[in-house]
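Input:
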Amino acid sequence: MKLITAIIKPFRLEDVREALVALGVPGMTVSEASGYGRQRGHTEVYRGAEYTIDLVPKVRIEIVVEDADADSVIDAIVATARTNSIGDGKVWSSSIDQVIRVRTGERGHDAL
Amino acid sequence: MTMNSGDTAWVLAATAMVLLMTPGLAFFYGGMVRAKSVLNMMMMSFVTIGIVSVLWTIFGYGLAFGDSGSGLYGSIGLSHLASAVNSMPNNGGVYPIPELAFSAFQLMFAVITPALISGAIADRTKLVAWVIFVSIWVTIVYFPVAHWVFDFGTKHKDGSITGAGWLASRGVLDFAGGTAVHINAGAAALALALVLGKRVGFARTPMKPHNLPLVLIGAGLLWFGWFGFNAGSALGANGLAALALINTQVATAAALLGWLIIEKFRDGHPTTLGAASGAVAGLVAITPACAFVAPWGAVLIGFAAGAVCALAVGLKYKFGFDDSLDVVGVHLVGGILGCIAIGFLGTTTVNSAGANGLLYGGGFTLLGKQALAVVSVFAFSFVISYVLGTIIKHTIGFRITEEAEVSGIDLAEHQETGYEFGLASGSFASRLGSAREGAES
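Output:
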């Protein structure tokens, strides 16, 4: 099983979600995140005083999928999150050992 | 002379409008600080309403508008408001309104003036120190200075006047409080910013406003209330009040634009904070001048105030003092600009009780009087505030601990937080047995 984590621009979330639903991904966890990569932050000016805001708002999507589905899910996220401008985000996947559905106690593939 | 119901109604309504300015100021300031300080910032205004209203009733009205014969302060002793129930105020002439309405109207000015100072010492002031400062400051600075400027003395039947404040009797023109309110508060703000020192992380870590919509609500309430402040100072429903009102509107509008134009050219973007700040700068600057200049003069004063104050708020970084919310840059600078502008733009064509400034052939006489008022009120307020602040600093302490300041003054001073951020709601432990029983049933 793979945990796919995607950091994307917040305004792309709805398109990414729709693409994943179309692929048959049954659920996801979304959280607000902040951070920066190569694009760094931005500046804001209040009464003439300039503040550098280092951390930019992002959205983090987390999905656990079967190994065989990982590539197609990753491709769908990358394709729909891309705007071709700096700050589009990153997607990574990692192997995970165990998944348990809390309600039933099912484990592994059954819990997905 | 009998009381005039129209005049009385207007002064009563204006009194309520001026009261609303202090909660408006609390919003204006509260939105500008960080989320962890919003309650304390607003509390500094609200507690001031409490303190000054009580002191005014006990002795403040007497100290400001009584007669000691010195011109420096009013009468020392009780205000005796009960004996004023059926009388009319005699302030350079009798006004056909209840003296209690006049007293209540003037009270609201005494309330907002120390509240204005609080913006300079945001995020770091011990509440008990603030309460003590405000109590003493209104007593030895505001009430006397209000006497200097606002007390035109008792006019007797033979036309002679006794007991006027020393600046009022010299013909200084300050219709609604450029000196007593704004320069006075601005000078004290500068003094306290110097006495308390900078906030932890000043000019290194971002201290951006946490709620600009709140700032705009506050600016809107100030703008609305200011019509009571300026037009109410006519103490009657008449042409003078209308002149003050229209001048207040156009000066504020022009100042808003002036601030935004500076921002557009200097920073690239006009900001909502700039619009709110420009409006307040215009309100400040037109306050002393609103019944002494023509509307075109008010536009000039407002535009100049917006532009000059937009530039002045940067000075604290140059000189290295932490006037947190720019009380100096807006109220001191705007107040001085408005008071001095009367020396140029004052004209008797709009108000026969006024005087002609330099541009209306009045020469330098009026300008000199205005400068005298500016310098004397600034010097008096700054020196007394600096000494008083220093005494408080070295006795009970004026600042909270560094740890409390970093973790947030709302929690440290009030055991409250302004906003509920998700998971921090905690668990419920009632101190009341009955509440626990109620929850079980």
